[in-house]
């Protein structure tokens, strides 16, 4: 057999195995429950819940894989910011008007609000340390 063909077949097998393992890992995230420290915002409670203090809001959707990857990170952040800030979520499928109000174009989008005003915005998957640093600096 030609060495290039052997290399190509090896690459395909390794890539398929890696993809399968990643799929299984990400699939697990969909079963991860939210921390009790995370609140869910709606049209009715949004203004009251964000009026005072620092709130990190995750705009997400159930079909979004990067959003599922953020779930364990947000759980850890929520458990680490007692008294300093709060973590909340907005389901963009259920509350499209909130996503529109904040011009959310991609998900996950994380907004950092201080006393009801946006002070920072992050799009995509972020680390726990990154988010904790941004919360401390808000």
TrEMBL record:
Pfam families xref list: Thioredoxin
Keyword Cytoplasm recorded: no
Record GO terms (molecular function): protein-disulfide reductase activity
Organism: Geofilum rubicundum JCM 15548
Transmembrane segments: 6-23
The Thioredoxin domain, residue ranges: 26-138
Family that this chain belongs to: Belongs to the thioredoxin family.
Name of this chain's protein: Thioredoxin
